[in-house]
Amino acid sequence: MKTCKKLYFTAPEQVEVQEEKLPDLAPGQVLVETELSAISPGTEMLVYRGEFPRDQPVDSCLPGLEGDFHYPLAYGYACVGQVIELGPGVDPGWLDRLVFSFQPHATHFVTSPEALHPVPESLSAGTAVFLPNMETAVNLVQDAAPLLGERVLVLGQGIVGLLTSALLAEFPLEVLVSCDHYAQRRKASASLGLTASLDPASADYFEQARALLKPGADLTLELSGSPSALDHAIQLTAFSGRIVIGSWYGEKVASLDLGGRFHRSRIKLVSSQVSSIAPDLSGRWDKARRFAVAWGALPSLQPEKWITHRFPLEQAAEAYRLLDQRPGEAIQVVFDYRP
Fold first, then answer.
1. Would strands 108-111 and 30-38 be described as parallel, antiparallel, or unpaired?
2. What is the DSSP annotation of 226-273?
3. pLDDT tens digit sequence for 293-335
4. pLDDT bucket at 106, cuts 50 / 70 / 90
5. Cα 49–chain centre separation
6. How far apart are CA 97 and CA 81, in angstroms?
7. Dihedral of alpha carbons 278, 63, 119, 123, sign
8. CB within 8 Å of 207: residues ≥ 6 apart
9. 108-134 burial string, b = 16+ CB within 10 Å, else e?
10. pLDDT in tens, 37-92
11. pLDDT in the model for residue 181
C-alpha cells in the first residue's frame, strides 16, 4: 500500500501532517513525488489564522484545490516534483519529468498529465516553485498597464510585490517606489534598481513618498495584504490615477477615508486576480500564453535567492509560526521533501 504525508490546516493556528493512502493509478493518471512546495505567505496565512471567508470555493479554477474554505483543509498551490509512476495509457515521455502542479503540500500526489506543467530543463526546482507568484505578477502588470514615463508606487514587498516590482523595473518609468515594513524586504526591493524602497512606519514616510512621486503616483499597486494600506494608496495617488488591488484580504475589513481628496480626485480602483484574464485582453490572451510569459521571466530574475527558509514537511507548524510571529525574518519559505 502506497501512502503519502499531507498537510492539513485543522483549526486557527493549528496544522497537522497526516499519513494517507494513495489511490491506485487509474488510466490516464500519474504519481508525482514532490521535491519542493512553496508557502504563499499572504493567502496561506489567512487560512492559518482563520481569516478566510467560509463557504467560498477554495479555487474552482485549480483541480487540486476543490471544495469550500473550512477546516480541516488541505491547501497550497506551488508544488514541484518528479513523475515516478504512470497509469495505463499515459505517454511514457512523462516518466521522470520534473513538473510543476497546483497542489496542496504533500509528499506525493496523483493527478493527470493535463494538470502538470513540465519544468524547462534550464530551471531548477527552486526557481520553478515561484511560477504561480510570477504568473500573479505578470497578471498584475497587465492589469496595471504602466505607461512610459509614469510614476509608480508598489505597496508591499512580499514575494508577489518583489516579483511585480522586478517586472515593473524593466519598464521606462520616471519613478518606481516601493514600501514595506520589513528591512529585509526593502533591501531585496532596492536591489532591483528601484528609485527607492520606503518604510511606511517612518515618521516622514508620506513626505518622502510625495517628494519622489512629485507629488503623487500615476499608478499604485496595493500588494501588502493589509486593507489599511488602501488609505495610503489613496493619499499617495495623483488626480485621475489608478490603484490596482492585488491583495486578498479574506475577512479582514478596514474603513477607508473616501470623504477627503478621493471624492474629487477621480481615482480608479481596479481589482486584479490571477484566476481570470482581464476582459480587455481575453480576446488575445489565454492562460497558456500568460504561463509562457511567466516561465520566460523566471530565468533572468532567479528568484531562488529569495528563499530564506527551508523546512521538512514534518516541521510545518514551525514554518507557519515563523510567518505568523516573525514575518520580518522571512521572504519565501518552502517545504523541502528531499533527503
1. antiparallel
2. -TTHHHHHHHHEEEEEEEEE----TT-------SSTHHHHTPEEEE--
3. 999 999 999 999 999 999 999 999 999 999 999 999 999 999 9
4. very high
5. 18
6. 8
7. positive
8. none
9. bbbbebebbbebeeebebbbbbbbbbb
10. 999 988 899 899 998 766 665 555 555 556 567 889 999 999 999 999 999 999 99
11. 96
In this structure, are residues 82 and 29 in contact, taking their beta carbons and an 8 Å threshold? no
Question: Any idea what the Cα angle at residue 73 is, between residues 87 and 245, rounded to 5°?
Answer: 105
**Predicted local distance difference test score (pLDDT) of residue 254:** 73
Domains and CATH numbers, the chain: 3-129+302-336 (3.90.180.10), 133-271 (3.40.50.720)
Write the single-letter amino acid at 60. S
> In this structure, how many other beta carbons lie within 10 angstroms of the beta carbon of residue 182?
17
Distance CA 295, CA 298 (A): 6
Task: Give the model confidence (pLDDT) of 179-197 as tens digits.
Answer: 999 999 999 999 999 999 9
Phi, psi dihedral angles at 129 (to 5 degrees) = -70, -10
All three cell numbers of 238, joined, read 495623483
Contacts for 145 with CB less than 8 Å, ≥ 6 apart: none
Q: Taking the mean position of all CA atoms in its chain, how far away is CA 105?
A: 15
Cell of 286: 489565454
Q: Which three cell numbers stand for residue 207?
A: 513626505
**237 vs 180: CA distance, rounded Å:** 17
Angle at 135 between CA 130 and CA 138, to 5 degrees: 125
CA 49 to each of CA 12, 186, 215, 267, 324: distance values in angstroms, whole numbers, following the listed order: 5, 25, 38, 32, 8
